[in-house]
Amino acid sequence: MLSFWAMTMAFALITWHLYNIQLVEGNSYALRASQIRSQEVALEEFMRGEITDRNQVPLSGGYYANRVVVFPKLMQDQQKELEQLAQVIGQNSADLNKKARDGAFYLTLNLTSKQLQALQTTPPEGVFLLPVYIRYGDKPLAGHITGYLGKISSQEQFVLLQQNSAKNYNLGDWVGQSGLEYFYEQELKGTYPQRWARVALDARGRVINGEGLTVNTSAADPARLNVVTTIDRNIQQIVESVMDAHMQNGAVIVMKAGSGDILAMASRPGYDPSPARLGHSLAGRQGDVYVDHCTSLFQPGSVFKVVLAAAAIDLGMVDLDEHFTCLGANAGPVRCWLDGGHGRITFQQAFAESCNPVFVEIGERLGADTIIDYAGALGLSNQAIAGYPIKGDKRQNLAAIGERFNLANSSVGQGPVLVTPVQVTAMLNTIASGGLYYPPRLVAGVADDQGRFVREIKQPEPTSAISAYTAGVMQDLLREVTEVGVGTRAQVAQWGSAGKTGSAQLNNADGTVDAWFSGFTPVNNPQYVITVMVHDGSSGGATAAPVFKEIAEKIMQI
Questions:
Q1: Is the pLDDT of residue 34 over 80?
Q2: CA-CA distance, 351 to 305, in Å (whole number)?
Q3: What are the distances in angstroms from CA 499 to CA 474, 490, 544?
Q4: What is the pLDDT of residues 278-317, one digit of tens each?
């Protein structure tokens, strides 16, 4: 009986081992075997999945380009053929001979029309023009989100990758160093090329007669997957082009109203993630070029007044036509931005004009605990973004609003109040979405090369932050800002807009501020929530509002 069970166990182990060899590791073993008896060139820059927009279009702008592919094994007289190639392309034949020692290769240079014609007419033996997939186009998008690649440069990094992955790594492999490239390294890394050119060799390494060159442009690599973001490539392109024209330092977020999906997210200063251009794009830049301002903490200034207004209306602690008095520069403990003051002013007017003394009084009525509760309900304590596992910044601490002497400054978005542009966008989205707070989402899931989702990242469930009635009143107040208040330069022609300005003082001798405008469009049927934060601006109304307007109008036109 014992021998029967021993034989059964042995048979089961053999069956499992055969299954593992044939089905699980079969492709990998087949690749290794083919490499032993062939000379091969991968017709792609990186054996790696794509990071795409919501329609599964690569954000890197990848494209196919003809490249010079060299197979030394197909050359009868290698020295002669490489010298001929060197003359055509204007390179040193010694460099080509050095490359040839390692086997087949392709050259990354872009050919002139004359060079292309020469290689098409009389190509040297063993030289081919073949399409190679280039991962990065001239203007890759969302660099801070996608992150960049770098070679494994330390034993420590190599060991860590091997420990955390079922895939094989070698020193010198290209791996994700930041952003989604880093977070999804295990999903993105491929096992073998999906596009390749190959020459079959016999056991002695000689070309098999009659076999010639084999090219495969649709090989399967189930190990590599694509990361599908919620970004809309067209909207991301609009945002980045407008930023490059008007902003050197800051952030822009576009969110789909009625959803937490981020449609565009860009930070400046930026960098080009292409390995060939990364160093050049960073030359002379400051250290914050790697910092994503979209997820960094800043004082929101008067944008924070949205929290106080929503809380006061939700709790019935203020009427829109209630009157207050603004003494301008003579007001205390926080002066108004308007030196002469607004005089006698209603709450509705105070919101549109962003009157500081009125909101200091509203803050005193509400008290720190209520402000903290509403700020949290509106998402200003949640730094998480679904599918984008960045570390939260511990400096964000809404509880500090309740500390001694902090209430007045906090009521106008200064002092200890710190928020990210993503959080501000989600807060305004709550107003646009009828009082429901939608947690932000940046990644929809991971898909195979056929576009089928292997893993989905669901939109987190919304929570009720304020009543629908309060959200409706807030929408009207935000509309007043762009129609008659300090945000008129954010008014979107034809579709209308609503939003709030903010100007957070910096400790700069030139008096510049972090200038904010966050709002939505169209005004009667919100589709897009847009936040603009310009570092070192003059004011939210003068600096950020026009950028909002241009982005919103271009988005609506498409």
A1: no
A2: 8
A3: 10, 8, 11
A4: 876 555 555 578 899 999 999 999 999 999 999 999 999 9
pLDDT in tens, 218-256: 999 999 999 999 999 999 999 999 999 999 999 999 999
Q: What is the pLDDT of residue 21?
A: 47
Q: Which of 130, 176, 169, 116 is nearest to 150 (CA)?
A: 176
Q: 């989600």: which residue's tokens?
A: 426
What is the Cα–Cα distance from 161 to 182, expressed in whole angstroms? 11
d(CA 297, CA 159): 34
Helix, strand, coil percentages (3-state) for the chain, rounded to 5, are 40, 20, 40
- 3-state class of 414 per DSSP? coil
- Higher pLDDT among residues 349 and 170, named by residue: 349
CB 50 within 8 A of CB 60: yes
At which residue do the structure tokens 């964000």 appear?
396
Distance CA(493)–CA(486), nearest Å, equals: 17
Q: Is 555 helix (H, G, I), strand (E, B) or coil?
A: helix
Determine contact, residues 535/293, Cβ cutoff 8 Å.
Answer: yes
Cα separation, 205 vs 210, in Å, equals: 15
The CA distance from 411 to 413, in Å, is: 6
The pair of three-digit structure tokens given for residue 153, joined into one six-digit string: 């440069």
Query: How far from each other are the two terminal CA atoms of the chain, in whole angstroms?
Result: 76
Residue 282 is inside which H or E element, if any? Answer: helix 275-282
CB-based burial, 123-158: b 16+ in 10 Å, e otherwise: bbebbbebbbbbbbeeebbbbbbbbbbbebeeeebb
Output the pTM of the full model.
0.90
User: Is 386 within 8 Å of 230 (Cβ atoms)?
Assistant: no
pLDDT exceeds cutoff 90 at 23: no
